[in-house]
Specification:
The protein has two domains: 137 residues, Aspartate Aminotransferase, domain 1; 222 residues, Aspartate Aminotransferase, domain 2. With 372 residues, it is an alpha/beta fold. The termini are far apart. The protein is globular and about 55 Å long. The chain is built from 14 helices and 13 strands. Strands 2-8-7-6-5-3-4 form a seven-stranded mixed sheet, with helices on both faces. The protein has a four-stranded antiparallel sheet with strand order 9-10-13-12. Strands 1-11 form a two-stranded parallel ribbon. Helices cover 40% and strands 15% of the residues.
Protein backbone atom coordinates (compact mmCIF):
# COMPACT_ATOMS: atom_id res chain seq x y z
CA UNK A 1 0.00 0.00 0.00
CA UNK A 2 1.44 3.34 -1.02
CA UNK A 3 2.26 5.79 1.77
CA UNK A 4 1.06 8.95 0.06
CA UNK A 5 2.61 11.21 2.71
CA UNK A 6 6.07 9.91 1.87
CA UNK A 7 5.89 10.91 -1.79
CA UNK A 8 3.84 14.11 -1.51
CA UNK A 9 5.59 17.47 -1.17
CA UNK A 10 5.30 18.64 2.42
CA UNK A 11 3.96 22.05 1.37
CA UNK A 12 1.03 20.29 -0.34
CA UNK A 13 0.29 18.12 2.70
CA UNK A 14 0.16 21.28 4.82
CA UNK A 15 -2.41 23.06 2.63
CA UNK A 16 -5.76 23.67 4.27
CA UNK A 17 -8.53 22.43 1.99
CA UNK A 18 -10.68 25.11 0.36
CA UNK A 19 -14.41 24.92 1.14
CA UNK A 20 -16.47 26.36 -1.75
CA UNK A 21 -20.09 27.46 -1.58
CA UNK A 22 -22.52 24.55 -1.66
CA UNK A 23 -24.01 23.91 -5.12
CA UNK A 24 -27.79 24.14 -5.49
CA UNK A 25 -27.92 20.53 -6.73
CA UNK A 26 -26.21 19.24 -3.59
CA UNK A 27 -28.58 21.06 -1.25
CA UNK A 28 -31.61 19.78 -3.14
CA UNK A 29 -30.34 16.21 -2.86
CA UNK A 30 -29.32 16.42 0.79
CA UNK A 31 -32.40 18.22 2.11
CA UNK A 32 -35.03 17.09 -0.37
CA UNK A 33 -35.81 20.69 -1.34
CA UNK A 34 -37.12 21.85 -4.70
CA UNK A 35 -36.84 25.63 -4.30
CA UNK A 36 -33.27 26.65 -3.48
CA UNK A 37 -31.42 29.93 -4.11
CA UNK A 38 -27.67 30.25 -4.04
CA UNK A 39 -26.24 33.44 -2.54
CA UNK A 40 -22.84 32.08 -1.56
CA UNK A 41 -20.44 32.40 -4.50
CA UNK A 42 -20.95 35.98 -5.76
CA UNK A 43 -22.43 34.92 -9.08
CA UNK A 44 -24.52 37.16 -11.34
CA UNK A 45 -28.20 37.17 -10.25
CA UNK A 46 -29.29 37.86 -13.85
CA UNK A 47 -27.53 34.80 -15.23
CA UNK A 48 -25.33 35.17 -18.31
CA UNK A 49 -25.09 37.72 -21.08
CA UNK A 50 -27.57 36.63 -23.81
CA UNK A 51 -25.04 37.56 -26.48
CA UNK A 52 -22.46 35.37 -24.77
CA UNK A 53 -24.91 32.45 -24.60
CA UNK A 54 -25.68 32.66 -28.31
CA UNK A 55 -21.99 32.81 -29.19
CA UNK A 56 -21.22 29.79 -27.00
CA UNK A 57 -24.05 27.75 -28.53
CA UNK A 58 -22.77 28.58 -32.02
CA UNK A 59 -19.25 27.59 -31.02
CA UNK A 60 -20.45 24.23 -29.69
CA UNK A 61 -22.39 23.56 -32.87
CA UNK A 62 -19.60 24.50 -35.26
CA UNK A 63 -16.16 24.17 -33.68
CA UNK A 64 -16.12 22.18 -30.45
CA UNK A 65 -14.25 19.30 -32.15
CA UNK A 66 -11.26 21.62 -32.73
CA UNK A 67 -8.65 22.58 -30.13
CA UNK A 68 -8.91 26.24 -29.11
CA UNK A 69 -6.38 28.90 -30.04
CA UNK A 70 -3.85 28.72 -27.24
CA UNK A 71 -3.42 32.42 -26.44
CA UNK A 72 -7.01 33.60 -27.06
CA UNK A 73 -5.81 36.11 -29.70
CA UNK A 74 -9.22 37.53 -30.63
CA UNK A 75 -10.09 38.14 -26.98
CA UNK A 76 -6.68 39.66 -26.33
CA UNK A 77 -7.07 41.98 -29.33
CA UNK A 78 -10.50 43.16 -28.18
CA UNK A 79 -9.33 43.79 -24.61
CA UNK A 80 -6.33 45.70 -25.97
CA UNK A 81 -8.67 47.94 -28.00
CA UNK A 82 -10.94 48.52 -25.00
CA UNK A 83 -8.08 49.47 -22.67
CA UNK A 84 -5.98 51.11 -25.41
CA UNK A 85 -2.97 48.98 -24.54
CA UNK A 86 -0.65 46.68 -26.46
CA UNK A 87 -1.95 43.11 -26.95
CA UNK A 88 1.32 41.85 -25.45
CA UNK A 89 0.16 43.24 -22.11
CA UNK A 90 -2.66 40.69 -21.74
CA UNK A 91 -2.69 37.11 -20.44
CA UNK A 92 -5.90 35.05 -20.56
CA UNK A 93 -6.37 31.96 -18.40
CA UNK A 94 -8.85 29.61 -16.78
CA UNK A 95 -10.48 32.16 -14.48
CA UNK A 96 -8.61 34.51 -12.16
CA UNK A 97 -7.73 31.43 -10.11
CA UNK A 98 -5.81 30.14 -13.13
CA UNK A 99 -4.09 33.50 -13.57
CA UNK A 100 -3.04 33.54 -9.90
CA UNK A 101 -1.72 29.98 -10.15
CA UNK A 102 0.40 30.92 -13.15
CA UNK A 103 1.76 34.01 -11.35
CA UNK A 104 2.76 31.83 -8.40
CA UNK A 105 4.28 29.14 -10.60
CA UNK A 106 6.30 31.68 -12.55
CA UNK A 107 7.65 33.82 -9.73
CA UNK A 108 7.54 32.17 -6.28
CA UNK A 109 10.55 30.14 -5.19
CA UNK A 110 10.64 28.04 -2.05
CA UNK A 111 10.97 30.37 0.93
CA UNK A 112 9.96 33.54 -0.92
CA UNK A 113 7.67 35.78 1.10
CA UNK A 114 4.20 36.73 -0.14
CA UNK A 115 2.24 39.43 1.68
CA UNK A 116 -1.50 39.97 1.82
CA UNK A 117 -4.26 40.85 4.26
CA UNK A 118 -5.38 38.44 6.97
CA UNK A 119 -8.92 38.11 5.61
CA UNK A 120 -8.80 38.09 1.84
CA UNK A 121 -9.23 35.79 -1.15
CA UNK A 122 -8.07 32.33 -0.07
CA UNK A 123 -6.43 31.54 -3.42
CA UNK A 124 -3.49 33.79 -2.48
CA UNK A 125 -2.62 31.46 0.38
CA UNK A 126 -3.27 28.36 -1.72
CA UNK A 127 -1.09 29.27 -4.71
CA UNK A 128 1.70 30.43 -2.39
CA UNK A 129 1.60 27.14 -0.51
CA UNK A 130 1.71 25.18 -3.78
CA UNK A 131 5.10 26.77 -4.49
CA UNK A 132 6.37 26.41 -0.89
CA UNK A 133 6.37 30.16 -0.40
CA UNK A 134 6.03 31.83 2.99
CA UNK A 135 2.69 33.59 3.48
CA UNK A 136 2.75 36.78 5.54
CA UNK A 137 -0.78 37.67 6.68
CA UNK A 138 -1.28 41.24 7.88
CA UNK A 139 -4.13 42.04 10.35
CA UNK A 140 -6.85 44.24 8.89
CA UNK A 141 -7.90 47.67 10.10
CA UNK A 142 -10.84 47.97 12.49
CA UNK A 143 -13.14 48.75 9.57
CA UNK A 144 -12.04 45.51 7.85
CA UNK A 145 -9.82 47.03 5.19
CA UNK A 146 -6.28 46.29 4.03
CA UNK A 147 -3.85 47.89 6.46
CA UNK A 148 -1.57 49.46 3.87
CA UNK A 149 0.90 50.93 6.37
CA UNK A 150 1.32 47.55 8.06
CA UNK A 151 1.78 45.83 4.68
CA UNK A 152 4.49 48.34 3.72
CA UNK A 153 6.19 47.74 7.07
CA UNK A 154 6.15 43.98 6.41
CA UNK A 155 8.08 44.23 3.12
CA UNK A 156 11.55 42.66 3.23
CA UNK A 157 14.22 41.75 0.65
CA UNK A 158 12.55 38.31 0.55
CA UNK A 159 9.13 39.67 -0.45
CA UNK A 160 8.31 38.46 -3.96
CA UNK A 161 4.60 39.33 -4.30
CA UNK A 162 2.03 41.53 -2.57
CA UNK A 163 -1.57 40.50 -3.26
CA UNK A 164 -4.05 43.37 -3.01
CA UNK A 165 -7.70 42.37 -3.41
CA UNK A 166 -9.52 45.57 -4.32
CA UNK A 167 -12.43 45.50 -3.61
CA UNK A 168 -11.64 42.85 -1.04
CA UNK A 169 -13.28 39.45 -0.85
CA UNK A 170 -14.81 38.59 1.65
CA UNK A 171 -15.14 41.98 3.37
CA UNK A 172 -16.35 44.09 0.42
CA UNK A 173 -14.13 47.03 1.40
CA UNK A 174 -11.76 49.03 -0.82
CA UNK A 175 -8.25 50.37 -0.76
CA UNK A 176 -8.35 54.05 -1.71
CA UNK A 177 -6.37 55.77 -4.45
CA UNK A 178 -3.99 57.43 -1.98
CA UNK A 179 -3.39 54.13 -0.20
CA UNK A 180 -2.80 52.33 -3.49
CA UNK A 181 -0.29 54.93 -4.63
CA UNK A 182 1.52 54.74 -1.31
CA UNK A 183 1.76 50.96 -1.56
CA UNK A 184 2.80 51.00 -5.21
CA UNK A 185 5.60 53.47 -4.52
CA UNK A 186 6.80 51.37 -1.57
CA UNK A 187 6.97 47.98 -3.28
CA UNK A 188 10.55 47.31 -4.51
CA UNK A 189 10.94 47.09 -8.29
CA UNK A 190 11.74 43.36 -8.14
CA UNK A 191 8.62 42.63 -6.09
CA UNK A 192 5.25 42.23 -7.84
CA UNK A 193 2.12 44.06 -6.75
CA UNK A 194 -0.93 42.11 -7.90
CA UNK A 195 -4.09 44.23 -7.85
CA UNK A 196 -6.93 41.71 -8.00
CA UNK A 197 -9.98 43.61 -9.27
CA UNK A 198 -12.61 40.91 -9.80
CA UNK A 199 -15.35 43.23 -8.51
CA UNK A 200 -14.18 46.57 -9.88
CA UNK A 201 -17.28 47.08 -12.09
CA UNK A 202 -19.46 47.38 -8.99
CA UNK A 203 -17.45 50.17 -7.33
CA UNK A 204 -18.73 53.73 -7.48
CA UNK A 205 -16.56 55.28 -4.74
CA UNK A 206 -14.77 58.39 -6.09
CA UNK A 207 -11.54 57.51 -4.25
CA UNK A 208 -11.26 54.02 -5.77
CA UNK A 209 -8.07 53.80 -7.88
CA UNK A 210 -8.28 53.36 -11.64
CA UNK A 211 -5.13 51.29 -11.95
CA UNK A 212 -4.60 50.94 -15.72
CA UNK A 213 -2.71 54.28 -16.08
CA UNK A 214 -0.17 53.18 -13.44
CA UNK A 215 1.07 50.38 -15.72
CA UNK A 216 3.04 52.88 -17.81
CA UNK A 217 5.49 53.74 -15.03
CA UNK A 218 5.31 50.59 -12.88
CA UNK A 219 6.49 47.46 -14.66
CA UNK A 220 6.02 45.37 -11.49
CA UNK A 221 2.23 45.96 -11.37
CA UNK A 222 -0.16 43.17 -12.41
CA UNK A 223 -3.90 43.83 -12.65
CA UNK A 224 -6.28 40.85 -12.69
CA UNK A 225 -9.92 40.92 -13.75
CA UNK A 226 -12.61 38.38 -14.57
CA UNK A 227 -15.60 37.56 -16.75
CA UNK A 228 -17.20 35.55 -13.92
CA UNK A 229 -19.01 38.34 -12.08
CA UNK A 230 -20.55 41.16 -14.11
CA UNK A 231 -20.77 39.05 -17.29
CA UNK A 232 -22.08 35.90 -15.61
CA UNK A 233 -19.51 33.51 -17.11
CA UNK A 234 -18.39 31.87 -13.86
CA UNK A 235 -19.19 28.39 -15.20
CA UNK A 236 -16.82 28.54 -18.17
CA UNK A 237 -13.86 30.22 -16.37
CA UNK A 238 -12.23 33.19 -18.07
CA UNK A 239 -9.94 35.60 -16.27
CA UNK A 240 -7.07 37.78 -17.36
CA UNK A 241 -4.00 39.70 -16.27
CA UNK A 242 -2.82 43.07 -17.57
CA UNK A 243 0.86 43.83 -17.04
CA UNK A 244 4.17 44.78 -18.62
CA UNK A 245 4.92 42.60 -21.64
CA UNK A 246 7.97 41.06 -19.92
CA UNK A 247 5.68 39.64 -17.22
CA UNK A 248 3.18 38.41 -19.81
CA UNK A 249 5.92 36.56 -21.71
CA UNK A 250 6.88 34.67 -18.56
CA UNK A 251 3.25 33.80 -17.73
CA UNK A 252 2.75 32.40 -21.23
CA UNK A 253 5.74 30.11 -20.67
CA UNK A 254 4.21 28.40 -17.63
CA UNK A 255 0.56 28.10 -18.71
CA UNK A 256 -1.09 25.00 -20.13
CA UNK A 257 -1.11 24.46 -23.90
CA UNK A 258 -4.83 25.28 -24.10
CA UNK A 259 -5.74 27.18 -20.92
CA UNK A 260 -9.10 28.58 -22.08
CA UNK A 261 -11.55 26.42 -24.01
CA UNK A 262 -13.27 27.47 -27.23
CA UNK A 263 -16.67 27.95 -25.60
CA UNK A 264 -15.28 30.25 -22.93
CA UNK A 265 -13.36 32.33 -25.47
CA UNK A 266 -16.46 32.74 -27.65
CA UNK A 267 -18.63 33.71 -24.68
CA UNK A 268 -16.17 36.26 -23.34
CA UNK A 269 -15.63 37.79 -26.77
CA UNK A 270 -19.36 38.27 -27.37
CA UNK A 271 -20.08 39.31 -23.81
CA UNK A 272 -17.79 42.31 -24.13
CA UNK A 273 -20.21 43.68 -26.74
CA UNK A 274 -23.27 43.21 -24.52
CA UNK A 275 -23.14 46.59 -22.83
CA UNK A 276 -26.87 46.51 -22.06
CA UNK A 277 -26.43 43.34 -19.98
CA UNK A 278 -23.34 44.70 -18.24
CA UNK A 279 -25.11 47.95 -17.35
CA UNK A 280 -28.19 46.10 -16.12
CA UNK A 281 -26.08 43.74 -14.01
CA UNK A 282 -24.29 46.65 -12.34
CA UNK A 283 -27.59 48.47 -11.72
CA UNK A 284 -29.28 45.40 -10.20
CA UNK A 285 -26.29 44.70 -7.96
CA UNK A 286 -26.12 48.27 -6.67
CA UNK A 287 -29.85 48.32 -5.95
CA UNK A 288 -29.72 44.89 -4.32
CA UNK A 289 -26.62 45.77 -2.30
CA UNK A 290 -28.48 48.73 -0.81
CA UNK A 291 -31.51 46.53 -0.08
CA UNK A 292 -29.45 43.79 1.57
CA UNK A 293 -27.19 46.09 3.57
CA UNK A 294 -29.99 48.22 4.96
CA UNK A 295 -32.15 45.16 5.58
CA UNK A 296 -29.37 43.76 7.76
CA UNK A 297 -28.93 47.07 9.55
CA UNK A 298 -32.68 47.22 10.21
CA UNK A 299 -32.36 43.84 11.93
CA UNK A 300 -29.79 45.39 14.27
CA UNK A 301 -26.92 43.45 12.71
CA UNK A 302 -23.34 44.52 12.05
CA UNK A 303 -23.21 44.66 8.26
CA UNK A 304 -20.08 45.99 6.55
CA UNK A 305 -20.58 48.65 3.84
CA UNK A 306 -19.79 46.92 0.56
CA UNK A 307 -18.41 47.95 -2.83
CA UNK A 308 -19.00 44.52 -4.38
CA UNK A 309 -21.87 42.15 -5.23
CA UNK A 310 -21.99 40.72 -1.71
CA UNK A 311 -22.37 41.93 1.86
CA UNK A 312 -20.45 40.67 4.90
CA UNK A 313 -22.40 40.54 8.17
CA UNK A 314 -20.87 39.84 11.57
CA UNK A 315 -23.49 38.21 13.79
CA UNK A 316 -21.28 38.28 16.88
CA UNK A 317 -21.97 34.58 17.49
CA UNK A 318 -20.78 31.37 15.78
CA UNK A 319 -22.74 31.13 12.52
CA UNK A 320 -22.70 27.36 11.89
CA UNK A 321 -26.23 26.84 13.24
CA UNK A 322 -27.52 29.98 11.53
CA UNK A 323 -26.08 28.80 8.22
CA UNK A 324 -27.71 25.37 8.57
CA UNK A 325 -31.05 26.93 9.54
CA UNK A 326 -30.96 29.13 6.44
CA UNK A 327 -29.98 26.12 4.34
CA UNK A 328 -33.05 24.25 5.57
CA UNK A 329 -35.12 27.14 4.18
CA UNK A 330 -33.48 26.76 0.77
CA UNK A 331 -31.12 29.74 1.09
CA UNK A 332 -27.40 29.08 0.57
CA UNK A 333 -25.02 31.70 1.98
CA UNK A 334 -21.32 31.46 2.85
CA UNK A 335 -20.20 30.87 6.45
CA UNK A 336 -16.69 32.19 6.88
CA UNK A 337 -15.46 30.00 9.72
CA UNK A 338 -12.99 28.21 7.40
CA UNK A 339 -11.48 31.63 6.60
CA UNK A 340 -11.03 32.53 10.26
CA UNK A 341 -14.24 34.55 10.67
CA UNK A 342 -16.52 32.17 12.62
CA UNK A 343 -19.10 34.86 13.43
CA UNK A 344 -19.48 36.10 9.85
CA UNK A 345 -21.69 35.28 6.88
CA UNK A 346 -21.10 36.52 3.35
CA UNK A 347 -24.32 36.98 1.40
CA UNK A 348 -24.25 37.44 -2.36
CA UNK A 349 -26.53 40.14 -3.77
CA UNK A 350 -29.39 38.49 -5.63
CA UNK A 351 -32.53 39.78 -7.25
CA UNK A 352 -34.85 41.89 -5.13
CA UNK A 353 -37.00 38.82 -4.38
CA UNK A 354 -33.96 36.70 -3.50
CA UNK A 355 -32.55 39.38 -1.22
CA UNK A 356 -35.84 39.64 0.67
CA UNK A 357 -36.00 35.87 0.98
CA UNK A 358 -32.46 35.79 2.38
CA UNK A 359 -33.28 38.47 4.96
CA UNK A 360 -36.42 36.61 6.06
CA UNK A 361 -34.51 33.31 6.27
CA UNK A 362 -31.77 34.92 8.35
CA UNK A 363 -34.31 36.51 10.72
CA UNK A 364 -36.06 33.17 11.23
CA UNK A 365 -32.73 31.41 11.72
CA UNK A 366 -31.66 33.93 14.38
CA UNK A 367 -35.00 33.59 16.18
CA UNK A 368 -34.80 29.81 16.05
CA UNK A 369 -31.27 29.84 17.45
CA UNK A 370 -32.07 32.35 20.16
CA UNK A 371 -30.14 35.14 18.48
CA UNK A 372 -32.98 37.49 17.62
Amino acid sequence: MIDINKITRQCIIDIKEYVPGKPIEEVKRELGLEDVIKLSSNENPLGTSPMAIQAMIKEVQENVHYYPEALSPLLVAKLARIYQLDPNQFFINNGVDGVLSMIAMAFINSGDEVVTSQYSFYSYQSVTAHMDGKMILIPQTQDRRFNIDAIIAALTPKTKIVFLCNPNNPTGTITTRDEFERLLSSVPENCLLVSDEAYYEFVDAPDYPQTIPYLKDHSNLIITRTFSKVMGLAGVRVGYAIAHESIIRVLRKVCDAFPVNRIAQAGALAGLDDQEFIDRSVRIVKQGRYQLYHGLLNMGLNAIPSHTNFVLVDLGIPVAQIYEAMLSQGVIVRPLGPQGLPSCLRITVGTSIQNERALIALKRALQGCGGG
